[in-house]
Amino acid sequence: MLPLPRSLTRRSSWPSSFTTALIGWNGLTTVAALAFGRAPLLGTLLPIASALAVIQVAALRACLHFARRTRGLVGGAVVGTVTALLLGAAAMARVPDLARHPVITLLMAAYIGAPVGVFLSYFRRDDARIEAAAAAQGRLVDYGRDAHWLDPFVYGAAAFLIIFAPRELWSGVSTAIVGAMVGVVAAGVSHFFLSRLDNAPISIPIAAVAGIPLGAATGFLLRAAAHPPLPAPVAGVIAGALCFAITATVGHRLAAREVR
Mean pLDDT in runs of 10 for the chain (260 residues)? Predict the structure, then answer.
């Protein structure tokens, strides 16, 4: 469990929104670049992805503020997709390689923008629920385990860096980003599925097994970029299982703390 600034423990805060979008845009841009054999372009793409993330957050939060009815996840996905398509068109004007593949570029922009919109909408709605419950009971707001929503990104990045042991800067950057994205999935599995087992100790080996297929896929994705000391699929399997196991272990500890 990592200590975070208070502004980042509230998932719907401005800093958290920017962090969510930056992770989404940079993470999925990296995955797309690796999948399409464009890893050498990451030095150009990631600064642009970061700028687009910042712009999209401003647009999405404005929509959520003024269009009060856009509270649902579907509404967040729609607004996220529309804003991302507009931003993708702007990116093509800056990067010739993207302009040569407009359909793929716009599809990837929509693929990135939709989940960012969903997450921002979900965080806004869920934080409001927690805050309303605290107000109704006359107590201070406590976000509980949700205050640690960023931890799995760090666990995933660390697990992949340890196992893949990249030797070059951009290999390390892409490996850490892919690992962080695996951490997102691990967090979702812990939050939405392992919680049904009350995050009991048995959930830890279950999570490790669940991380194997995704780890193998990411190993294949990183095979050319990271040059791991082990065969890439094997390294991916170990890193994926480790990331999921760490996340589930922390989930178990947080669940036990809430019961006390």
Answer: 77 93 94 89 92 94 64 85 94 87 93 93 90 91 85 94 91 94 89 76 92 94 83 94 93 71
- Inter-residue contact 249 to 199 (CB < 8 Å): no
Structure token digits, residue 113: 């923008």
* Cα→Cα distances 19→22, 116, 161, 166, 218, Å: 5, 10, 21, 25, 23
CA-to-CA distance for 247 and 183, rounded, in angstroms?
A: 8
Q: CB atoms < 10 A from the CB of 107, how many?
A: 14
Cα–chain-centroid distance for residue 111?
13
Q: How many CA within 13 A on the CB side of residue 10?
A: 14
Task: For the chain, give the number of residues.
Answer: 260
Indicate the SS3 state at residue 216: helix
CA-wise closest residue to 34 among 202, 164, 211:
164
- Per the structure block, which two tokens stand in for 169? 């800067």
| Backbone phi, psi, residue 145, to 5° | -65, -20
Where along the chain do its domains lie?
Answer: 6-143, 150-259
Give this prediction's pTM: 0.87
3-class secondary-structure state, position 227: coil
Give start and end residues of each alpha helix (H) in the chain. Answer: 6-9, 14-35, 42-66, 73-94, 96-99, 102-137, 151-164, 169-192, 203-221, 223-226, 232-259
